[in-house]
Amino acid sequence: MTHGSPGRRPRTGGMRRVAKAPPAQPRLLVLNKPFGVLTQFSDDQERATLKDLVDVPGVYPAGRLDRDSEGLLLLTNDGRLQARIADPRYKMAKTYWVQVEGQPTEDQLQGLRTGVVLKDGPTLPAQARLLAEPRLWPRDPPVRFRKSIPTAWLEITIHEGRNRQVRRMTAAVGLPTLRLVRMSIGPWSLEGLQPGAWREVDPS
Length: 204
What we know:
Layout: E1 28-33, E2 60-61, E3 70-76, H1 79-86, E4 94-101, H2 106-114, E5 117-118, E6 121-122, E7 127-131, E8 151-158, H3 165-172, E9 177-185, E10 188-189, E11 198-201
Parallel strand pairs: 3-9
Antiparallel strand pairs: 1-3, 1-11, 2-3, 4-8, 4-9, 5-6, 7-8, 9-10
């Protein structure tokens, strides 16, 4: 029987250990998404996408914002942060300024606060209040109004993230949404960003 030399490690067949790349530094971008832009980076119909606004590799949206809605969209390269922002389990507050058709009554506002029944089930209670007409950038294209029907602005805060939820909630109480702008998500807000502009913030 032949024994190897003392202290010598057995050969491993020439295999080398490949060093793992260090994890990417978490990044978080705050974007003011304009009306008409899809919340994705590509589109086979050549519509406007995030690629037209954000030239940062490796980031992706934390949640969605409808093409016909405006305002705050967060983008990150960190999966855990994305889940904290977008997953309904964490109930992160999302605040919207909503222009509706009609003059809201206290009963309609209370309906939003209590929660309304949608096709996919009842919503959680929301915060809802009348808002003086805010100073916002002009929407392109402009909102189409009916001269015979007044409009009003509401501030609505929800803790869910269903598809087109705020629009469906206002419609359910008889106040169709004309314009919808997301102003904040959790601790992050637009803070004066113009449409199409973004800035990077500390993800912690």
